[in-house]
Amino acid sequence: MSDPQTLNVLFLCTHNSARSILAEAMLNHMGRGRFKAYSAGSSPRENQSPNPLALATLQKAGVSIDGLSSKSWDHFALPDAPQMDLIITVCDNAAGEVCPIWPGHPATAHWGYADPSEKQGSEAEKLEAFMQTLLQIKRRLDMFINLPAASLDKMVLQNTARGLAAS
């Protein structure tokens, strides 16, 4: 682990505009210094930025959006990038892609969520889809951050994180 006090977690999705952004912000909000979350995309669009509905949902939930940006996962495979302890894919597309070789060989898991940005309907219906996704992420993160320290040991971390995918 990069710092014995802090576990670095990278959330991956295809465009890094909705689910991975929600997960990054929520874990940083809930993590109480034990966790540092990041997010990235396997293929963010040119000039990609976080989905405005994701940002609005986070603000409505009282979660800071400071510093959130869409970026390629290549950013985290560089030698000077923070070393990750756990990498979690949050969309099925990114889960099936060939990932870079991550420095330190972190644990990996897949926590799939439906893409709220694909919701059709009124603005209120779209916002509700983002809120439901955020609540699903929060429920899983509640369990994750409350795990005993022994469950966060590198050898146990991967199995623990993958087990939460069923939650």
UniProtKB/TrEMBL annotation:
Domain of life: Bacteria
Keywords tagged on the record: Arsenical resistance, Oxidoreductase
SMART domains: LMWPc (SM00226)
Family matches, as InterPro entries: Ptyr_pPase, Ptyr_pPase_sf
Keyword Transmembrane assigned: no
Residue stretches making up the Phosphotyrosine protein phosphatase I domain: 7-147
Enzyme Commission code(s) on record: 1.20.4.4
Matching SUPFAM superfamilies: Phosphotyrosine protein phosphatases I
Record-level Gene Ontology MF annotations: arsenate reductase (thioredoxin) activity
Protein name: Arsenate reductase ArsC
Organism for this UniProt entry: Limnohabitans lacus
